[in-house]
Amino acid sequence: MNEETLNILSSIIANATPLVIASIGETITERVGVVNLSLDGSIILSAMIGFAAAYVSGNVIVGLLAAMLVGALVALIIAAAGIELKQDQVAIGFVLTLLCADLAQFLGDPYARQPGPQILKTPIPFLQDIPLLGPIFFKQTLLVYFSYILVLGTWYWLFRTRQGLALRAVGERPTTAFARGTKVNRLRYIYVGVGGSLVGLAGAAYSLSVKAGWTTPPSMAGDGWIALAIVIFGGWHPFRVVLGAYLFAALRAFATVAQRSATLNIPVVILNGIPWVLMIVTLVLVSSGTIERLLLVLPRPAQKFMRNFLRSDPPAALGTRFDPE
Questions:
Q1: What is the mean pLDDT of the chain?
Q2: To pair with 168 at 20 to 30 A between CA atoms, which of 2, 91, 152, 235?
Q3: What pLDDT score does 309 carry?
């Protein structure tokens, strides 16, 4: 494999990292029964605050922490509005999306196109020398390595721990979970805060790494909606979510290469629409039962594994309020 191809594959992993982090954060949030529709605005505002904090302090760690705090606060506003004020989570999230995006452009104007600190690549010794895999996966930034750990850790927490079982129970059957002694609303606040902080970290991953700097209009606008779509596409499962994020990044890379190619005469609109079309087709195939029928040709253990992997039903209590009274 030539060096140019390796560089493209490496850039796909790097460019997918903010989507991976944001999508995992939203997966955690929705698994506990709360819809955070503010992702796009939250990512934009976190990107601006993260870059501004790093620019003023000269320290990317400060920028990352500031962005995570912003993301957590935005998510907790939605949780509080739904739990305490009994307002519609979707409506509040949509309003916050618009508010955060406009606020970011207003507050971020002094920092637009200013050079600032950014997260540099940190190759992992020995692992970077593995043929083919090393240059792609292990010559990246610390945020990319964090995303690997995040996906595996989230899967383990959700499906291999008692705490993860309680989390899923709150998102599926909060009344039953409450009857067994689980403090439903407290858990929702905790996990919504965690999910929101990851969304904020994704914003900082853009402005301090992938698309270093701050511009008006923001270069990452729209990626929050993509992250929301990836969560649905991934069936609220960490492994499928990360595959969806990498697929989006790969198709974007293909679109970029195709636009530069003199031999491929494909309209840009079609190239940019391919990820969405693929996602819709996949969801239709799964929901219509077509995939289920195709699985019948596999051995029984493989059928069970693939059914679990392709699960696309949302948490049963997603977007609903729980009143312990």
A1: 89
A2: 91
A3: 66
Answer whether 286's CB lies under 8 Å from 236's CB. no
Measured in whole angstroms, the distance separating CA 138 from the mean position of its chain's CA atoms is: 21
Residue 79 sits at φ, ψ, to 5 deg, of -60, -45
235: left (phi > 0), else alpha (psi -120 to 50), else beta? Answer: left
Q: How far apart are CA 316 and CA 295, in angstroms?
A: 25
Cα distance between the two ends of the chain:
63
Cα separation, 192 vs 74, whole angstroms: 10
Question: What is the rounded distance in angstroms from the CA atom of residue 13 to the CA atom of residue 91?
Answer: 33
Of 169 and 287, more confident = 169
DSSP annotation of 296: G
Q: Are 321 and 83 in contact (CB under 8 A)?
A: yes
Tell me which of 88-92, 157-161, 268-272, 316-320 is least confident: 268-272
Task: Point out the least confidently predicted range of 69-73, 128-132, 281-285.
Answer: 281-285
Q: How far is residue 263's CA from residue 231's CA, in Å, rounded to a whole number?
A: 35
For the chain, the maximum distance between any two Cα atoms, rounded to a whole number of angstroms, is 66
237, 232, 72: which is closest to 151 by C-alpha?
237
Predicted pLDDT at 291: 65
Q: What's the average model confidence in pLDDT over 296-306?
A: 73
Is residue 142 classed exposed, middle or buried when 0-12, 13-18 and 19+ CB atoms within 10 A define those classes? middle
Task: Tell me which residue has tokens 């977007």.
Answer: 319
Torsion sign (Cα): 210, 254, 152, 161: positive
- Closest by CA position to 14, among listed 95, 119, 131, 124: 119
Residue 22 in 3-state DSSP? helix
The token pair at 147 is: 């995303």
Q: Which residues contact 147 (CB under 8 A, 6 or more apart)?
A: 17, 20, 21, 24, 242
Cut 0.85: pTM above it: yes
Neighbours of 270 (CB within 10 A): 11
